[in-house]
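pinned: reference chain
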Amino acid sequence: MPPHSWRRMAHIQLFISAVTAEFRSYRDSLRNHLTQPDVSVAVQEDFLAGTKTLQKLDHYIKHCTAVIHLVGNATGASAGEPSLSDLETLYPDLAARLPALKQVIETGTPRLSYTQWAAYLAIYHRKPLLIAVPEAEEQRDQSIDADQRAAQQAHLERLEALGHYAEIKFANADRLVIAVLRSQPVQAGLFPQLRPPVDLPKPPPTISGKQSKKVFISYRRDDSRYQAHRIFEAFKKKLSRENVFMDIDSIPLGHDFVDVLKEWVGQCEIFLALVGPGWVSCSDPQTGKLRLDNPNDFVRVEIREALARGIPVVPVLIDGASMPDEKQLPEDLRLLARRHAEFVDFRTFDPDVRRLIKKLGITGTRRRATANK
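pinned: its C-alpha cells
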C-alpha cells in the first residue's frame, strides 16, 4: 500500500467495496467484526436509495477514513453515463490524477461498475485503499461468467498501474477478517479503535538487498520442491547465491544435515516457510506418523530455530494451501500460525513472487560471485 497521510480520528468511518452477489457473506462478516461503538462501516447498499448512487459513494469516500476493496470475478452494476459526466464536472483533473482511467473518462468505455469506481475514488481522494482478492479456488456466493472475470483482471491491472496492489488473499470469511486486522494500518496502531488481537505479530522489518541479507527457504520435498526451486531462482536474481539457502543446492557433501540447518538459520535475517497443500498431513512412510510430530523432523527443526531467534518468519502458502491452525502444529511451532502469510499460486506464480520480494524490501541486484578455488 503506497504511503498516505494517515490521521488518527475520534471516530473511524470505513467503506467496504464489494460485489454483493459474489461476496455478501464475506462482506457482512467483515462488517460485523469491524463495527464498534467508535467504528462505523458502510457498504454500497447504504447508498442505493433514490438516484445519484455514484455521487453518494463519492461523498462518503471523500470523508471516510479508509476503503477495503474486495476484488473477485464479478464487476457488479455499471455506473451510467450521467454519473460519469457528473464526476468529470466535479473533478476536472480526474484523468490527470488517474491516468490509467484516461480512456474510460474520454470515451466512456469500458464502462466501470460502482464497485470499481469506489476504489478509484479512494485513490483520487488519497484515502488508504486495502485490496483483497480470494484464493483461486475459494467458493464464491455466486458463479461468474468469463467476460466479467476478464473485466476484473483489467481492473486489477489499472489499479497496479496506479500503484495499488492486492495485499491480501483470503481463503474464507474468517481469514479475510484476520488479514484485515493484520494489515499495515492496524498493526501500526493508526486505527487504534479496531483493537487487533493482542497476539498478532508485529509487521516484519524490511531488509535491503544492498546489505547482502541472508534468506532461508524451508520446504518439504514431497510438498513443494518445484515451487521452492523457482522461488530460490527468483531470490538469487536479487541476492547473491551464497545469501540464499535451500538444502538441495546449499549443503556441502559430507556435512551433518541438522548442524548445517541450525547454522544457516542462525545466520539468516529472514526465513520463508513454504507451506503446500500437503505440508501438515505429510507422513513418514516408514512409521506412518506425521512428520511434524517428530521433534527431529528437518522442517520442524528449521522453523523452531527461526521462531526462537525472533527473526521475520514468513509463511508462504503455495497453490491454495491454507494457513495451518495452531491446533495442527506441535507446541514449539504454534507461533507460526500467528505470522502474516503471503500467497504464491501456480496461475500467478511470477507476479506473486515479485510481490513477495517487494514486500520484503529486497531491492538489490545479484552480484557476480567469485569462484572458489
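why pinned: The two ends are 46 Å apart (CA to CA). Residues 255 and 261 are 10 Å apart (CA to CA).
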